[in-house]
Amino acid sequence: MVVVSLLAIVGAAMPMPTALETVPGRVVDLAPHTTRAATISVGMLLLVLAGGLRRRKRRAWQLTVLLAVAEGGLHLARDFDLPQAALTAVLVVLLVSTRGAFTGVPDPRTLAPTAVVFVGSALLAAATGFAAVLLDGIDQGSHGSLSRTGREVLLGLVGITGPLRYRSTEHADFAAVTLALLGGAALVCTLAAALRPPGGPRGLSELDEQRLRDLLSRFGRQDSLGYFALRRDKSAIFSPTGKAAIAYRVVGGVSLASGDPLGDPEAWPGAIREWLDEARRYAWIPAALAPGERGAAAYHRAGLEVLEVGDEAVVHVADFTLEGRAMRNVRQAVGRARRWGYRVDVRAVELLTPEELAEARTASERWRDGTHERGFTMALGRLGDADDRGCVLVRCRDGEGRLVALLHFVPWGPDGLSLDLMRRSPHVEHGVVELMVVDLLAAPSVQPLHRVSLNFAVFRSILERGGRLGAGPVLRLWRRVLLSASRLWQIESLYRANAKYRPDWVPRYVCFPRAGDVPKVTLSVLQAEAFITGPRIRRAGGPVRQGTPAPRRRERAGQTA
What does the pLDDT look like over 222-279, one tens digit per residue? Predict the structure, then answer.
């Protein structure tokens, strides 16, 4: 369809052969020029609709069929272009024959933004057209009133000749083409707004959050990422029995689930079916980021492909020791930090005073690297919320009592913690983070503590095996690519920062429908994790910046878009 649209635009923009200027186009006054503008406008609309067709939107298919028929008629009315009309007819036949593939229903939340874009673009087009008509060569005798000029503009925006007279045919043609193109541009903007990739449900409702907390209280020890399902820019969809749920967010037309499903593993297939059915209904691409081996197997049984994407570092407290040659670097770093006067405090967040929480939030914002808060799968997106009982804050102060670093952990069942946030002053000495981790593992205030999940290492096995003696050329090449990417995204440094604690490496996966969806899924992952960012309008139910207590929400109807 893109080829047909581009050919139509190029063909309409080219000068019309003189011999054809008298064919059916002259049936309507100014038709050769008005139909040229209309042909270009319809071609632009078809280009915009191509994105909706790729997402199998039913409404995009309906509009495309109507516009393709109109495009064929315009080809005949403008210059009797039979090849272009025949090509458009073939497109219509193909669309009609594949109508069963376009099942995606529209996102109801696009109605209000589309209306705003329509009104704004229509007003802008009318104002621009009004100025163009006044500056054009209007016959002085036709200046009846501003109302006549207004009617000229409004009719011209839809390709109809208005009541004004112009000094020459050239001036009249210019006004007709300009107004028709402005009207087409306003329609293109409106369609682009209506067919833009949907954002899906807007965050957790209070009721859904409570249901997730109930599941976590019973099954929270299954997945170290389970608590991050409570991030409030995610949404939740439950199994028919309510015993399992999937936390997800729609990013660029991809329904991106995070971690394993929550709840009873016996009910996981029901939650996955509900999630897949919703994605199919709205023509989203379903994908799961960072499920564990058990969760990835459940997604695979539901029909998704699985690819290992990295490993999570898990430290078992009972096995951790600073003794031995392998731990010499950590042992020396901790010793230096203690000699320099750094001291660590480990406390549950619910026991901190409002002043202490405010100090931690302020420091977290000040030490953040960049303007955007990164994280989606392994980040909670808030610090010090009253509902987050069981979270632990590790703070480090220098010899003068100034806060210089902090770690924030979320619960992993009754006896584990999972790292959420790590921030430190840029002027702090090396060894402070090692000191904080070691003191956390030994802190009596958080006992019993059996396991701690640290950072996620992307493609760890490639970094590790690609540097070994005898590694193959393909593995070495992939390792070099990852090392180059580490200059931007700290891939290698995160791996080495975790490897020093001698953790167990737990594989994590990404699940997707088919190989052709990998580029789209990869882009949505980078956007969700804020590695790719753009201008963002803050809205209710949107992401909550780290360090700010997220507001509570009342239950809203229609959480599923």
Answer: 999 999 999 988 999 999 999 999 999 988 889 999 999 999 999 999 999 999 998 8
User: Is the Cβ–Cβ distance between 262 and 228 less than 8 Å?
Assistant: no
If you average pLDDT over every residue of the chain, what do you get? 77
Which residue has better confidence, 205 or 438? 438
Q: Token pair of 10, please?
A: 């190029």
Residues 6+ apart with CB under 8 A from 72: 84, 85, 88, 89, 92
SS3 content of the chain, % helix, strand, coil (to 5): 55, 15, 30
- Which DSSP state fits 105? P
Total number of residues shown for the chain: 561
Torsion-angle region of 97 (φ positive above 0: left; ψ -120 to 50: alpha; else: beta): alpha
According to DSSP, the β-strands at 416-424 and 451-458 are: parallel
Inter-residue contact 378 to 454 (CB < 8 Å): no
User: Is the distance from CB of 186 to CB of 118 less than 8 angstroms?
Assistant: yes
Q: Which helix (H) or strand (E) holds 529?
A: none
**What is the distance between the terminal CA atoms of the chain, rounded to a whole angstrom?**
28
Structure-block tokens of residue 300: 């695979």
User: Would strands 403-411 and 254-258 be described as parallel, antiparallel, or unpaired?
Assistant: unpaired
Task: Delineate the domains of the chain, giving CATH numbers in brackets.
Answer: 2-194 (no CATH), 206-306+518-528 (3.40.630), 313-508 (3.40.630.30)
pLDDT attached to residue 541: 36
Q: How far apart are CA 541 and CA 550, in angstroms?
A: 10
Q: If we measure between CA atoms, which residue out of 211, 230, 197, 199 comes closest to residue 271?
A: 211
pLDDT tens, position by position, 353-387: 999 999 999 999 888 876 556 678 888 988 988 88
Separation of alpha carbons 320 and 560, rounded Å:
45
Tally DSSP H helices, then E strands, for the chain: 17, 12
If one compares 421 and 159, the residue with the highest pLDDT of the two is 421
CB 79 within 8 A of CB 23: yes
Complete DSSP assignment for 430-462: TTHHHHHHHHHHH-GGG-S--EEEEEEEETHHH
CA 442 vs. chain centroid, Å, equals 39
User: Two tokens at 404?
Assistant: 């210089």
